[in-house]
Amino acid sequence: MRTWTIMLAVVAFSMSMVGTFLVRSGILTSVHSFAVDPARGSFILALLALYVGGALFLFATRVGTVKEGAGFDLVSRESALVINNLLLSVILGTVFVGTLYPLLAEAVSGEKLSVGPPYFNAVTGPLTLALALLLFIGPLLRWRRDSRPNARRVAAPLLVTVLAFAASFALDPAMSALARLGLAVAAGLAVASLLPLAGRNLRRTPLATWGMVISHLGVAVAIAGAAADTAFTKETLAAARPGETLAVGPWRVRLGSVVPVAGPNWTAVEGRLSASRGGRTIDLQPQSRFFSDPPIETNEAAIRTLWDGQLYAVISGAENGGRWQLRLWWKPLVTLIWLGGGLIALGGLLALLGRWWRGRRRVQVPEPAYA
Known about the structure:
This protein is of the alpha+beta class. Helices cover 51% and strands 21% of the residues. The strands form two sheets. Strands 2, 3, 4, 5, 6 and 7 form a six-stranded antiparallel β-sheet that branches. α3 (77-109) packs antiparallel against α4 and α4 packs parallel to α6 (177-192). Keywords: Cytochrome c-type biogenesis, Lyase, Membrane, Transmembrane, Transmembrane helix.
């Protein structure tokens, strides 16, 4: 486990460096890319070879000095952690291959390929759900060995999962299978995350246990947000004149006017939109910008984040007749993704504080003094 943990750390650092090289060198089109500059790309590639190569060299030469921990059975918390790591590694490999394959195919054959959300959703979605199902039972297992019957302990989360899956058909019969499974697993995982607290004195429960519970609850909330985004997003694409109103989900969006604006190194047309729902009105100002050096046109989306979702607006070039292309999205409950991430961070902080607190309470008893 110790060697495996070190190797995972090296791989995680290596992938962060590879990502930096891909977007900062301009190989991939990204909002984080700089201007095309072979010298800068070569410099980052040299750093990548130095850092990653050095880390792998140190691992290869010193792995023999790492002492292995105690063994563990197949049914144990350690095994659950290993399976967790393997699933995350497969997801990493899937994203890595999906990102680099179009570049390699273009370099070899000259044919441009595009790998987008359909591929990543179809491959990583089921793996993520399998990872979430593992969290149903993993925290309930004992370290090293567990011979207890745990099927009864996960009966309640499994029942909630089945009920949520059935309820999704009544909620939206046309929902995609992946979104339906995501909502069902998220509901079951939310219940399963609380099981480690069952039968405990909550006032005497260690902070590390609270951290684990809150983190796993955060995973459930984030999965629910991602599934809700897939299932309930509404989109409207239309050409509108100033004064016209469009509908997207529960919102009514009116294009008030389109005005020219200028920035430090760009000019733009800015749409003045007002969106209303239930008596509340918010303003949106999407822009279509043009940069002269180098000549490039970009769209600056207007985003308003509310407690129950996010509203997006994008404006592009004018058409004949004074119409402007507007693209509107309403993403209900997508904010749960951020809430889930916050809960995961809070859980990790509580776990660290719990470990620090246990260290402080370990008071070494001094040896008795003899006259």
